[in-house]
What we know:
By secondary structure, the protein is an alpha/beta fold. It has 10 helices and 9 strands. The chain has 2 domains: 67 residues; 199 residues, Rossmann fold (3-Layer(aba) Sandwich), CATH 3.40.50. Helix content is 36%, strand content 19%. Helix 1 packs across helix 2 and helix 6 packs across helix 7. The protein starts with 6 loop residues before the first helix and ends with a strand.
Amino acid sequence: xxxxxxxxxxxAQAAHRLSDPGSAxxxxxxxxxxxxxxxxxxxxxxxxxxxxxxxxxxxxxxxERRASGEPLAYILGWKExxxxxxxxxxxxxxxxxETELLVERTLTLRPQSSGRVxxxxxxxxxxxxALATERPQWAISATDVSPDALVxxxxxxxxxxxxxVEFLHGDWFEPLQGRMFDLxxxxxxxxxESDPAMQDPSLRYEPRIALTPGTDPLRxxxxxxxxxxxxxxxxxxxxxxxxxxxxxxxxRELVGRGFRSVRSHRDLAxxxxxxxxxxx
Length: 280
């Protein structure tokens, strides 16, 4: 019976099954395009097409995975960030749109074609690779404590033909001993493990180590701030993504460590999401 459903009927059934009315239609289209190996536009222009029974069954199985909370990016195997298609999977955090603000501010603070930059906790490599795309002459180092994340980041760099990024295994600054940079950027875990947001069904699929530092949501942010001066050139910048209500505490930590020009920036939702500070 499933084999007799047209693409349009499958889409309607899938959109009804998915819980978020704001994204259900789009996600249903993306997943059907993924199964059929065609563009989303083609799916929408061929609603009377009759997919093969096997394709219809695979599609409905993917819809069930999405309905259970599995991130769409994990099902598709990729996520777009800064217009770059990035491979993602259960070993890395799915890149969020708000993190693009961190890239924007980094590029603004360093318009020069040359520069030495470190991305701490790179995950899928999203930030480092976005910067490498915009500033191909920059020397970019990206660190991560997760070997699985580094495998994914390196694969993304290779797929995008971005060979100028150096990927290093280790916790924050550990692989960067004795090295100095013009810019340090990081999107560290900053959600308290007791935060109700951690109960979101989709988050159970993402690596917990990339989401929460435990009971103290600022723990990793403090670690980075306290060590950043040892790796920043005079006048260099530290840029940090943080939680919506953490800007004031992050700024206090930065000022306490002697940073100047401390300022926060709001994401598209109006939340203070990125704080930058200059090493004096």
